[in-house]
Amino acid sequence: xxxxxxxxxxxxxxxxxxxxxxxxALPLALEELGEEVIIAMPKYKAISxxxxxxxxxxxxxPFSVIGKNIKVYFIESDKYFNRDGLYQDxxxxxxxxxxxxxxxxxxxxxxLKRINFTPDIIHVHDWxxxxxxxxxxxxxxxxxxxxSVKTVLTIHNLGYQGLFPKEEFPKLGLDWSLFNIEGLEFFxxxxxxxxxxxxxDIINTVSPTYSREIQTxxxxxxxxxxxxxxxxxxxxxxxxxxxxxxDPATDKFIVKNFxxxxxxxxxxxxxxLQKLCKFPLKPDVPLFGIVSRLAEQKGFDILSDGxxxxxKMDLQLVILGTGDLKYHLILENMVKxxxxxxxxxxxxxxxxxxxxxxxxxxFLMPSKYEPCGLGQLISLRYGTIPLVFxxxxxxxTVDKxxxxxxxxxxxxxxxxxxxxSVAAYKNKQGWLSLMNTAFECDFSWEESARKYVQLYTxxxxxx
Length: 463
Ligand code: ADP
Description:
Mean pLDDT: 97
Oligomer: single chain
Strand order of the largest sheet: 3-4-5-2-1-8-9-13-14
Distance between the termini: 17 Å
Helix content: 25-40%
Number of strands: 20
Bound molecules: adenosine-5'-diphosphate
Shape: globular
Radius of gyration: 23 Å
Low-confidence stretches: none
């Protein structure tokens, strides 16, 4: 099958979140399965021509290569992409994001003609490329070049929809008749993601549970009606994890490598992390780790409500992340009060993240909602037991056999589950068997890529 993947961020070129990981890793797994894939993304200022060996195609389009032979084509624009920040700068969202990503979406369709590549499937991601299905079914409706092309839209987080004032509608180059409830209108505003959901052939999300949750009022962010209307076309495929990056046996960032067959090294990594946090070097005290955006979505509302009680338990807690100022302040106060129990690192730090995944005993991820989540998958790989709220991708990957799960989103339930995990940690034999189950979990991309191929096949068969 011929597949074009269009995304606003792709690892290793540009990343702000999990979308980039998927857009960079899925094509590699598809290529391994024998599919023909190309990628299109904006050419942001930060993308180095030298570092990524960017060349020009014979048609004059800049491209780089990943995997064996996956061409990543860049959509260029001095006006729209040659600036700092993918979506925002220090002052907030770029004011012309609607124009930037409608330019990108049209640019992708023009690119296909330019390089004469007719895909069977265009796979778009989140609102930034959601206009592609809209343009295909409207502006390009009678264009023979795109006649057989089908579209799949993956939602990575329904919380971001691309909302803009009605007045900007003419900039999209669409007929005003599309500004209605069956089209891009959403309570008087333009909703780009909604347009994509209405016009794509198949809707997909990044876990089976999240695909059901988004059809409910609680998780639907106002789009549950649209999703429910199309429920026959809504699917959920779990993200994989790139085990070449996340592997305790080869990880270059940690002081001692380890694996299921030689877990001794993990205690050295714990000691290293305890030193780094200036904690007492106690092997018998469970060390909890968090690597996360400090946001309500990630459970920081109930966590900060319960943090004082948590710090009174016989445990240690290291937190790495940045986010809402109010959580920075609450946690900083806790560090002053309990310096031997809690250690706070308010930054983005890949190396420290590796050290936390490797050196912790328990990985705390009480997200209020979680489309898929990578943290729990990484921690399982490092024999670090995840403690999660039962939602979205967390519910699909963690259960009592490989972790700790609470089912009511409340401070009391979080605290109770942390207490239970501290008690469980004291039982060495039980803990070892929990770690073994964690090590044995397999969330590699291969299985997920096979499911994507099935999804593409069913999209291609649509009338
Ligand atoms: P998100 O909703 O933020 O995309 P995910 O769990 O899907 O959440 O992915 C987050 C990824 O970013 C994980 O790989 C995690 O390790 C990493 N990460 C988050 N915060 C930090 C940080 N402060 N420093 C280093 N890595 C981080």
